[in-house]
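re the bet — no i am not wrong, look at it urself. input seq straight from the record:
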Amino acid sequence: MHWTRSGELMIIIILGGLGTLAGPLLGAIAFLLLEEFLPVLLGSLAPAYAENWMILFGPLLIMVVLFGRGGLSGMIGRWYVARNAAGKGADRR
């Protein structure tokens, strides 16, 4: 296995979130979608950089690491809890 493939696996795990079974699965889905659609987006904005989609992916990954505690699975879990708490609070009135 080439080192870049190992790096992609680490990125997928970090992006999805550690400690859950759903985290790496969500990370793989997100990584594959970004790998497909970022070149298209970048190609429409700056055609010379269409192959360099990692230019946009790097800052996105940094944002998830800094602000998305637990990766995508953690963010989805916190959103779900907050949504349910807001719904239960509205029912009490």
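see?? The chain has one domain: 3-91. told u. also The chain has a mean pLDDT of 85. so pay up
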